[in-house]
Structures are given as structure tokens and as C-alpha cells.
Amino acid sequence: MRNLIARGSTPSLYLKKEDIMPLNHKHFQESITNELDAVRNRVRDLIGDAHWGEEGRYKEEILKKTLRKFLPNNVSVGTGFVTTVADISKQLDIIIYNNNVPVLFSEGDFIITTPSNVLGVVEVKSNLDTSTLKAAINHYDVGVRIFTQNIQTRRKLFYGLFSFEFSGDINSTSIDETLKDSREILNHISLGKNYFIRHWEQKEGAKLRPSVNAHSNFYNIYDIQNLSFSYFISNLVHSVCKGLNDRHWISFPIEDTKEVHRVRTVYME
Questions:
Q1: DSSP the chain
Q2: How far is CA 188 from CA 154, 236, 239, in A?
Q3: pLDDT digits over 118-148, tens only?
Q4: Which of 31, 48, 92, 166 is least surrounded by Cβ atoms within 10 Å, i.e. has the fewest?
Q5: What is the pLDDT of residue 9?
């Protein structure tokens, strides 16, 4: 039987538990973060710091390429503008949108569309610290204000800020103040490969383990070594594609959930 299994000729129906290689879902997710981390500096290695704008665009392309690997065919990843009859956004680094609904204009991955088919927006940064995080969030707020007039629309979208590096102090109280002043627009923030911040509504606090006895909406700050990038991507996929509970265990593989790696909770009131 073992020889047959080794040659791959035995149906999986007859595989024994001891014949199956142990799965390592955490290592799989870490590899996503490590891959992004490995390629992030290739342009800088070749051109130095002479063309920061080009390096930033390169990093946007890296993240867009990675997102496309995990999103379904009916979801596209582009860049461009979102417009309404009364307003237009700033140029958005990454727009995740339902391509079953036509855009107004497209050329390559550049698009102009209306809010009706937008599923998420991501701002990409090369490096943030505790002071530039505040500026990035304020800039983000201006960019997505077109979406935030309707609270129901705001709640269903993925609003992400993704920084390839974080050179600040995650324990700085200025981060707390920045989050409190953010108007709760952002719901997912990746700060380098280790730190992840997620927005929760008050009612969700009791469901977390360990739970949060929340008196308001809140942000949780996590130190999840080598998993921040992959958790950002997994949260985006689960936000865009509803009903993926049967794969939660591989998308979020930290034993006992990431809540055990919670640095602190920042309440909005």
C-alpha cells in the first residue's frame, strides 16, 4: 500500500493519515509576505534614490500583481479616478472593482468609473513612520471622500493603506491620536511586514477572542511577525468575496487567532 502511495497510483480514498505530509498554512501565508518583501527594493538597488516617484509606482505594480493572483476573474485591479455627477476623486493608487459592471473609460489598467462597481481602494506607500502615517491618512481621507457621504456604502468597501516598510515606534501614542482623528475611514492598515491595524465596530468586540469590552468602535493594533502583508491581502479577498468561511483557517492561520498578538486597542470615543 505504501509503495502504491509513493508512486501516486493509489486513489486518495485509501490514503492513511501518516502518509500525508503535514500542512503548514502559516508558512504559506508567510511566503506571501516574504515574496513582497524580497522584491520591494529591486528598483532602489538599481537606481538608488534618484527617482522616488518611479520607485513608488513600481511598488504599486508589485502589489497589484500580487492581488490579481488571489482575486476572482470578475474582480479587476486598476488605478485611476472615481467620479460622480458632483465630484471626482484624486487619482487612486489601486482600485478594486467588479468588472461585470462597465467602467466609463479604460486604457490598460487605468480606469475612470463611478462608485457603483468599486469594491475597495488601497493607497500604497514605500515607507511610513509615526509622523508620516498621520499625513498619509489625511491624504487618503481626501482621496476617498467621494465614497464616504453614504455610511452604508462606506461600511461595505475595503479601505486599505499599505506601507512596504514601517520605521516608527508601534507603541507611540501619536498612532493612537492619528487613528482617533481618522474619521474611521480606513479599515485595514499594513505597516511593514509585522504590524497590522484593523477597524472593528463596537458590536464585533464581544466576538473576538480575547474579547474587547467595547464602548465604541475601535481599532486593534497587532504585531503578527511576517504576516502583515498576507493578512492585509486575505482581509481584502474576504471583504470582496463574501461567503468564504470554509477557507478562513488557511487565510488566517495564526493559532488561537491574531487577537493573541494584539498590541493594544484604540477606542474612537
A1: -HHHHHTT-S-GGG--GGGSPPP-HHHHHHHHHHHHHHHTTHHHHHHTTS-HHHHHHHHHHHHHHHHHHHS-TTEEEEEEEEB-SS-BPPPEEEEEEETTS--SEEETTEEEE-GGGEEEEEEEEEEE-HHHHHHHHHHHHHHTGGGTTSHHHHHHSEEEEEEEEE-S-TT-HHHHHHHHTTTT---EEEETTTEEEEEE-GGGGGGSSS----SS-EEEEEE-TTTHHHHHHHHHHHHHS---GGGHHHHS--TT-GGGGEEEEEE--
A2: 13, 9, 11
A3: 999 999 999 999 999 999 999 898 888 887 7
A4: 48
A5: 47
What is the distance between the alpha carbons of residues 236 and 242, in angstroms, rounded to a whole number?
11
Q: What are 74-93's pLDDT values in tens digits? A: 999 999 999 988 889 999 99
The neighbouring-strand residues paired with 122 are: 94, 160
pLDDT for position 38: 79
Report whether 191 contacts 222 (CB < 8 A). no
User: How high is the pLDDT of residue 100?
Assistant: 96
The residue ranges of the chain whose pLDDT is under 50 are: 1-11, 15, 17, 20-21
pLDDT at 54: 63
The torsion angles phi and psi of 138, rounded to 5 degrees, stand at -65, -40
Please report, as a single letter, which amino acid is at residue 91.
Q
Neighbours of 143 (CB within 10 A): 19
Identify the residue whose cell numbers are 486604457: 107
Q: Smallest Cα–Cα separation from 40: which of 186, 209, 166?
A: 166
pTM score: 0.86
What pLDDT does 231 receive?
95
> Cell triple for residue 221?
493594533
My answer on whether omega of the bond before 253 falls inside 30° of 0, hence cis, is: no
